[in-house]
Amino acid sequence: MDIDVRGPRFGAALTTVVLAVVLITGSFWLLAWQTLAFALGAAGGVGRSPYGRLFRKAVRPRIGPPTEFESPEPPRFAQGVGLVFAGVGLVGFGLGPDWLGLAATGAALAAAFLNAAFGYCLGCEMYLLVRRVTVRAQ
To answer: What is the pLDDT along the chain (138 residues), one digit of tens a residue?
Structure first.
């Protein structure tokens, strides 16, 4: 079943704020929260992430029914990509070196910002590229 395109963008906006605060404060625990949010989105789809649930319960009823839909697989894959970067960031902030935490978190922040501000999902584009390559290879 297709999903409302506004949900992943809302999640990306919240992710952008969280990751910006992580970069400013160096908060391991806030990055751990975002890693959990990515993990839930990757495992169950963006609708099962905390931000997806918040969108569905608090935002969507106020903005009306969706007019555009998208396949859930690319955003779910993007959550997995975010999970990898956030996980690397946790290793950097937790065990060192700090620059690794900053770089991985910064990369995840850049991707989240692109989605939130411009609707361009890097992880989704990666998903489509992987699909094209694997279909041709078969």
So the answer is: 899 999 999 999 999 999 999 999 999 999 999 999 999 999 999 999 999 999 999 999 999 999 999 999 999 999 999 999 999 999 999 999 999 999 999 999 999 999 999 999 999 999 999 999 998 877
Extract the tokens encoding 4: 């409302």
Which residue's structure tokens are 């969280």? 18
Q: 38 to each of 8, 56, 129, how far by Cα in Å?
A: 12, 17, 21
**Residues 7 and 56 sit within 8 Å (Cβ to Cβ):** yes
Which tokens is 80 given? 């997995």
Q: How many CB atoms lie within 10 A of CB 84?
A: 16
Please name which of 93, 81, 64, 65 lies closest in space to residue 12, comparing C-alpha atoms: 81
Q: Which amino acid is at 124?
A: C
What does the block give as tokens for 35?
């890693």
Residue partners of 50: CB distance under 8 A and separation at least 6: 36, 37, 40
CB burial of residue 10 (10 Å; 0-12, 13-18, 19+) = buried
